[in-house]
Amino acid sequence: ASESIERLAKLKVAYDAIENLTIQAIDNLPVMTGFVFKKFHLDGKTPIEIADELNFDLKDVEDHIKKGYERYDQARLEQRILEMYLKEELPYDLIAKKVKMNLNTLKVTLMRAKDKVVKSIDLHLASIEVAGIYNLEQLNVDDWYTVLKFKENS
Fold first, then answer.
1. Coil, strand, or helix at residue 43?
2. Which of these, 8, 18, 13, 38, lies nearest to 26 by C-alpha position?
3. If DSSP states are collapsed to H, E and C, what string results for 12-39?
4. Exposed, middle or buried, 150 (CB in 10 Å: 0-12/13-18/19+)?
5. Interatomic CA distance for residues 7 and 95, integer angstroms
6. How far apart are CA 20 and CA 30, in angstroms?
């Protein structure tokens, strides 16, 4: 098998992890914030319905929703930046312009997003997924992990 097939298999694992950034952000919310946010964002309940159901103050429910959206929106932004960087292969300055972000802030955000993606990948499951596309016996597992750390622009 060719190097390009191996690279595509590895990138598929990384892209799947990128797509899960928002789910991961919701799952990593504090317990009550996550519970309230899921009722609002996923179940479509209103803040008043949630407050009544949980016997909470409406302001507390709104605060949980706001905190949830802060994390969700950050994860969505990181997703968007990684997609532009990896899939579209746009340079830093163009990505910064598109997301209306200072260039240095973009670089830090991108670095943190990459770390989140790499840390979220279960290497055992990723190896199995890659093996479905690429023969695992021919795959240098020690080497392929570094591919998931992504390319670095100078």
1. coil
2. 38
3. HHHHHHHHCHHHHHHHCCCHHHHHHHHH
4. middle
5. 24
6. 18
Q: Of 82, 89, 87, whose CA–CA distance to 107 is shortest?
A: 82
pLDDT tens across 25-84, in order? 999 999 999 999 999 999 999 999 999 999 999 999 999 999 999 999 999 999 999 989
| Residue recorded with tokens 């595509």 | 8
20 in Cβ contact with 112 (< 8 Å)? no
| DSSP class of 134 | S
Closest CA to 84 of 110, 108, 103, 62: 110
DSSP 49-104: HHHHHHT--HHHHHHHHHHHHHHHHHHHHHHHHHIIIIIS---HHHHHHHTT--HH
Token couple for 96: 């910064």
**H or E segment at 2?**
none
